[in-house]
Amino acid sequence: MSNNLAEELGLLGPIDEMMHPYREQYPATRQLPATGVPRDKVLAQMEEMRAKEAARWRDGYASGSVYHGDESHIDFVNKIYALHSQTNQLHSDLWPSAAKFEAEIVAMTAHMLSAEACGEPFDSEKGVCGSVSSGGSESILLAMKAYRDYARAERGITEPEFVVPRSGHAAFHKAAQYFNIKLRPVPLDDQFRADVGAVAAEINENTIALVASAPNFPYGTIDPIDKISELALKHGVGCHVDACLGGYFLPWAERLGYPVPVFDFRLPGVTSMSCDTHKYGYAPKGTSVVLYRGRALRHHQFFTIADWPGGLYYSPTFSGSRPGGLSAACWAALMTMGESNYLKSAKAIMDAVAVMKQGIREIPELKLLGESLAVFAFGSDELNIYEVLDQMSARHWALTGLQHPAGIHVSTTLRQTQPGVAERFVKDLKESVEHVTANPGAEGGMAPIYGLAAAIPEKGIVHDLLRQVMDIYYKT
Ligand SMILES: Cc1ncc(COP(=O)(O)O)c(C=O)c1O
Predict the structure, then answer these.
(1) Mutate to test the pocket of ligand 1, among 132, 137, 410, 412 (most ligand atoms within 8 A of CB)
(2) Which of 38, 54, 118, 299 suits 447 as a labelling partner, its CA being 20 to 30 A distant?
(3) What parts of the chain have a pLDDT lower than 70?
């Protein structure tokens, strides 16, 4: 297909409109202004856009996206970013503060995830060590690249494979594509957790690592990581725990007494973890941490070149130059949050989650998918859940649609702990379900797109559609 089919079905027009609401108000700039636009004019336009876009996330209508969002927190991290906006980790001779911030972000994160439990000092040859990356996907890509190259060097594996539960993040599939690693997907059990028997069945002599999530993005469920860690030990392969979402949440939930299975370096088979500071760590977007058990793995992440005319060059992650201001702001967020504020935030979020989940349980047409904490999902056996999603969108909510099975995902953040927001979620959800029950099959929105994606067995067509969506993104 078929640009035409997507167009004929009228799918692209609404996406274009949604992505480009400013065309009328601010005509597109397609070449550099001949003379610089006055700063106050540029600032005014950007302030207008910010004001227009802030209301939805600020008032708690968005799943995930902005995890903290209090004005005073935002002002503080912005101030730190501004202080360090000229810094670049590539030049740690000029900005040794950047190296200090990153080393300490790694140390604080590793300590929180029980680095000491592995019996080796932090940042020793066999102890836990890590890197700061630009986000969850980069942390995952770095870890998978490190496993691939480690396995090639130490085990002679030339056709690497890794085992990923169906709920594992899309970034693992990206890693498989980018680095030519075969991804062996495994099904989930009836509680939306990795089926351990299926994981075991996929291990072979080319396996470089097993993946587990704490929790996964779609359902917020935590895989049986203790069992997967045992399998990794038994077979002498790596075990990566993707704690991008949960890394900065589960430790506090555990301390508060919520049922959190052991998911970190306390498990002897766990050899790496990804953990996002820019989600429940409450740092601004653009930082994450990848951790390894032992420097040997991390060395396979690093890039070095000894004979480049531009000098002796090294770079720990994918980017060359990096925005030091983001690591500074991340460090400052971690420092000012401290354990006490993380605990307080986790408690407030779990209180909001309790209201939202109870509301879902009281709507007979809906059902929660699996046992989870702050991140959860729900579906329906009776209604088209995407029509419910569209009705929620019409009521300003920004939630995520799931497929296989169809559902709606919510990552609860501090934004939903504001007074009345969780209750408003329940009220809007009840109204949405009532509306869909009374008017099934309504047109427009995401429902037809998900319907089409589910109905087309030839996934190439869906890939084409998604590429067209990205083309639309870059239209002026
Ligand atoms: C479990 C999990 N892993 C990885 C990622 C990827 O993170 P990012 O969007 O920061 O690249 C996400 C993002 O939501 C996630 O939920």
Answers:
(1) 137
(2) 54
(3) 1-5
